[in-house]
Structure formats: C-alpha cells, structure tokens
Amino acid sequence: MKFNIATIPGDGIGPEVIEETILVLNKIGEIYGHEFSFQEVLAGGIAIDKTGKPLPEETVEVCKNSDAVLLGAVGGPKWDTLPGDQRPEKALLGLRGALGLYANLRPAVLYTALKEASPLRSDIVEQGIDICVVRELTGGIYFGERGRKKEGKMGEEAYDTEAYSVGEVERIARTAFEIAMKRDKRVTSVDKANILESSRLWRSVVVEVAKDYPEVALDHMYVDNAAMQLIRYPQQFDVIVTSNMFGDILSDEASMLTGSIGMLPSASLAEGNLGMYEPIHGSAPDIAGENKANPIATILSAAMMLRYSLQLDKEAQVIEEAVIKVLEKNYRTGDIMSKGMTLVGTQEMGKLIVGEL
Amino acid sequence: MKFNIATIPGDGIGPEVIEETILVLNKIGEIYGHEFSFQEVLAGGIAIDKTGKPLPEETVEVCKNSDAVLLGAVGGPKWDTLPGDQRPEKALLGLRGALGLYANLRPAVLYTALKEASPLRSDIVEQGIDICVVRELTGGIYFGERGRKKEGKMGEEAYDTEAYSVGEVERIARTAFEIAMKRDKRVTSVDKANILESSRLWRSVVVEVAKDYPEVALDHMYVDNAAMQLIRYPQQFDVIVTSNMFGDILSDEASMLTGSIGMLPSASLAEGNLGMYEPIHGSAPDIAGENKANPIATILSAAMMLRYSLQLDKEAQVIEEAVIKVLEKNYRTGDIMSKGMTLVGTQEMGKLIVGEL
Ligand SMILES: CC(C)[C@H](C(=O)O)[C@@H](O)C(=O)O
Ligand SMILES: CC(C)[C@H](C(=O)O)[C@@H](O)C(=O)O
C-alpha cells in the first residue's frame, strides 16, 4: 500500500525527532511492503520566519490531502513576544479546527523499565500506569465565543464561552467507548456537572452513548476529584473522556505521573481516517540541534498513526515492541538517563529502534 | 474581646469535628481572655431534611451578622439524587455568593511527621510542601451566565460563561500578594492566557497589582503546565493565585500531594473581616458518628479564623503548634495512622490538642 504523510518538523528539536521517525517508518515500509511518501510542510515559528504566518494555507491544503500528518514540535522563546494570534501555537489550534481533529488521544503509560522516573511513590506505581485520556479537541471554551465588555461586574470584563452540543459530545464519547473496547473496558467521564450546564448536557449524552456499549463500565467523576484520584490511585482509570479544557489539564497531569514526557505520543483524530500525530513534549530549544532529544515519543506517535489512520495494527505493535526492547537493553537518551544505563543520542536511539523492528 | 461565631456543623462527620473545635476555641478563650459565643445554624443535607432548603435564609442572616463562620461539612449520598439546585452543595455556593466570599485560601502543607503519607517519591518531598492556593471564589464560570440553545453547533447546545472583570481580579490578586508578603514572597498566577480572553485580562491586571508589591516575585504559568509542575517540583510554588475553576482543580491536586486531606483547613474571605472556615475534606458519611473522624483540619480552620477574621495571630499560632506537638508525640486518627503510632478517636484527638495549648 502507498500512503501520503504530511510532515511538519516545526521548531527546536522537531526536525531531529521527525528525521528518526521517518527512518523507522521507511524500515517498516521495507519489511511489510508499504510505501510512505512524505511531504514536508511549514508550521509554527519556522513558518512565521519564512512566510509571516504560523499556519500557511498551503500547509492546511497538503495536510487535508494526506492520509495522516506527523508533527514534531512548534514554538520557542524567539516567537513568544508576538501578539497572540501570530504565535506558533496558533498553528496547532488552526490545524485542529481546519482538519476537524475532534478527538485527542493521550496515552499515559509508565514503562516497567522506567518505573523509577515516576514522581509517585514506588508502591503506588508498582502495578504500572496505563491510562488513555480522550480529550475533546475542537469544542468547548477553546472554540467558543469570547470578547470584552466595557461595563462588567466590576469594571471592564472579558469573557469566554464553554459550549457543548449533543453531536459533539456524542462523537467524542463514541471514540472513548471504542477505545475502551480494545483496552480494559472502563470509561470515566470527567465533568463538573454540579456546576456547569455544559457538563450536565455532557453527562446525559455520555450516558446515552454508553447504552451502545453494555460491556464497558462507565462512571462519572468531577474534575477536581479526578485531579486528586489520578495521583492517589492511577490504576483506577482506564479511559478518561473529557472536555477540551479539562482534558488539557488532566492529560498533562497524567503524563507527568509517568515521569517521562519524552516517551509519550498523542493522536488527534478527525471523522474518517485522517489524524495528526505528535509527541506531547515541546520544542526544547535549549537542546535543539545537539543530537540530544529523545525521538521515542515521536516514533510512538508514528505507531499511533499506523494504528488509527492507516489501519496497520500489526506494524504499529512492532514499533511499540521495538521501543520496549531498546529500553530493556538499557539504552537511554539524556532525559530518561539513570545510573548504570547507556547514554545515546537522538540518532543512535533511532538506529537502535530501527534495528529491533 | 467577645466574638460571635456562626457554626454550621452540617452533615456526616461535620458535627463531631465542630464539637472538638469548639472545645479548642473555648480553651483558647480561657487562656487569652476572649469570649467566643457560638450560634449554631443549619445548612446542607440536615437543612434540607428540616426546612426543605439546603440554605435557609436564617442561616445567611446569622452568618452575615457574625464575626466569622465555622463549617463542618455538607452533603452525603442521601441527598445525591435530588435535582441540582436542591442539593447540599448549593449551600456552599449560596454562602459564597451571599457573604461575598471572594477569596478562598487553600494551604497545602506536608507535615514532617506525616511525610510518608505523601504519594510523591520521598526525594521529592524531602524538603516538605508548603503551598497556599488563593482561589477566586465568587466569579468566573461558577457564577457566569449559563443556559441551553435548541440550535447549537451539532444539535442542542448547553453553555456556561467564564467572565472576569478588572475589579474582581484586582482584589483577589491583592489578597494573594498580601499573603505572599507574610510567606516566601513568591506569587505564581495561573491562567490559560494563550487561549482565553478572560485569562488575558486576568494576567494584565495581576501584572498591574504586582507593581504595588515590588518585593514579591511574580511569575505566570499556564494551567496545564501548573498541573504538571505541582507534581514534578512542588517547592517551586509559594502562593498560587488563580480563577475559580482552575483553583478548584489545582487546590485539590495540591492537597492530594500532601497525602493527608484530613489535615487541611481552608478559609474563604469577604472584603472586610468576615470569613468562612472549613476543612477541605467531605462529610465522610461512612464513619459519621463513630468517633473516628480526624478533627485536625477543622481545628486548623479555626486557627485560620483567628488569624484572618479575628486578628488573633498569636492564638492562631498556638493552635497550629499544638497540632504539631500532638503529631510529634505520635498520636494519629485512623486516616493518618501508620505503624508504630498511637491510634486515637476524634474526641481523644481534640483533648490532646486542648492539652497542648
Ligand atoms: C499550545 C496550547 C494551545 C495547547 C492546548 O492548550 O491545547 C497545548 O497545551 C496542548 O495541550 O496541546
Ligand atoms: C461542592 C462544589 C460546588 C465545590 C466547588 O467546586 O467549588 C467544591 O468542589 C469545593 O472545591 O469547594
């Protein structure tokens, strides 16, 4: 099969980690008889520098006409003083909106080989962590109406609107239940239904969708309690489904519990098969170009791409297993280095993973 | 001096922990020559049972005419099936609104004697945790306009409004800076200014207020990052100031990091001296009436009351020191029990603390 992949290396360490990921994908193509055709496009700071805009139209066009999008990282201090709508992050929001990427999957997995990196007490992470946060990504307060009013409650007022409609909740809930069916069949829907009207709608729709998945156990949790329970007893969660804003917070919190942000991939899915895949870490400008970045999160993002956009489940698994093998052979990049391990650079890590495919 | 304190024992373990706290306050009165006059009023489930309403008008009146309000806990499964606006939690929201309790102080302190209870790795909590979250409590999405629209983006839509005006941010920022002046002189303002208009207003007002506190170091952090940083390195925070919604989440997260929710007090302050003081734990109906509840969080809430509403700083400190002494003598209620310690009940714990005053 032939697949068209749009790549957005972006800023900082983005280009380096994408490079290793392409090598991994090419090797997978070679072994399993697929052809990946990569088309590199601009977004983020580099796009600002070259075109004046964080997200050129051409980028959106190419992404729309691809089977999937692979992104490195965008942003950096160089562009932090620009006004809000010209900042590199606008590229992410723009892509989410333009491509209709309504479902953000954020697995938080603690690898046995990296258990010690978790900030949690060893008895709490004894049984590992394996949570998938399913964050709604094109609705809620991120995309609601906002503005200013001269005469507010106490002087000038600024407002933002958290809004959810039935269809939006329905599709994200369905995504969460489908994913739970392939995992431990437990969904926790997180909301603030004791306060928010949008949460009450959210909860009632999730309850309806759940009826189509009788095998999945559903429970509901308030967001403040979820922020506590994640730390207290992370194993109580399998799939967490929640709004854009709560998902932003809880997915990052869950990631931190694993202690290795450099390991964690993400997928942002549209209806149909299109998806955008990227590591959750940032552009790390301080180590950019030094062959120090950990390419694993991006390589695991490519595995998610194979699974969710290209329907290459087996190939995805082969990549994930290769990563585990390399970790078990004690190779580590700087960010996950610990005593007695072998320190390797970005390129060496890429090669080691290719070698295990 | 004579002080009028409204007490709201509420539900579950509420009455038991309030009882011990009154004994502590009476002893303080005896030693330092103050008179505390307590007037008990109804709120929460017990108010629903007796009056049909979670927050009777009489309760609001009595609280308004008191020097301070001391609350045990409200809520429980018995009332969980009631419609939203008749639920026990409405009493809390109602009191916050009616009394104008705009500033919620949520100290998250890890006591040396209870270090092991923290879910964090011991090397992370080596230097302890001592954070004060200052949460805005009468604005934002909790009190904004909400409703439904038949024709939303994808079917029926529900919406809530996050709104902040200059004066609201100004006063909560000022509270945070004042508190920081008495602590380590560091304020972290948490927002989502890369997305929300209300956060951009928030940030600009905080920056203005900061000019009046040149000794205080101010920094800004996005809420998703704050949720991670709290876990990774809690000592980087002194005072966190944030919106109602973000404060709800982050204050609970910070509390959980200490591992002993039964120890943590809170204060909710109005302009002037009025304040409401309550433990952060819930009503724990499973152990209600069994002399098992930990009264320390409520006793420490009373200490905050002495400090913030009654200007009795020294007396507040005496209570806090008494609590530490009892812990150092290895007395523990069930929730903070560990090997080698002496298990005591609610009443014994109260007596022990009275004994150390
Ligand atoms: C960059 C920012 C707009 C973004 C968000 O809040 O969605 C980021 O935090 C993320 O989670 O992808
Ligand atoms: C009971 C609920 C309305 C309340 C809130 O969200 O404010 C609680 O979670 C709290 O933090 O005091």
UniProtKB/TrEMBL annotation, chains A, B:
Gene3D superfamilies: Isopropylmalate Dehydrogenase
Positions that bind NAD(+): 76-89, 282-294
Cofactor comment text: Binds 1 Mg(2+) or Mn(2+) ion per subunit.
Binding residues annotated for substrate, in chain numbering: 96, 106, 135, 224
Reactions catalysed according to its record: (2R,3S)-3-isopropylmalate + NAD(+) = 4-methyl-2-oxopentanoate + CO2 + NADH
One cellular-component annotation, GO: cytosol
Cofactor: Mn(2+); Mg(2+)
Alphabetical list of InterPro entries matching this protein: IsoCit/isopropylmalate_DH_CS, IsoPropMal-DH-like_dom, Isopropylmalate_DH
HAMAP family registered for this protein in UniProt: LeuB_type1 (MF_01033)
Subunit structure and binding partners: Homodimer.
UniProt-recorded name of the protein: 3-isopropylmalate dehydrogenase
UniProt organism field: Clostridium aceticum
Primary gene name: leuB
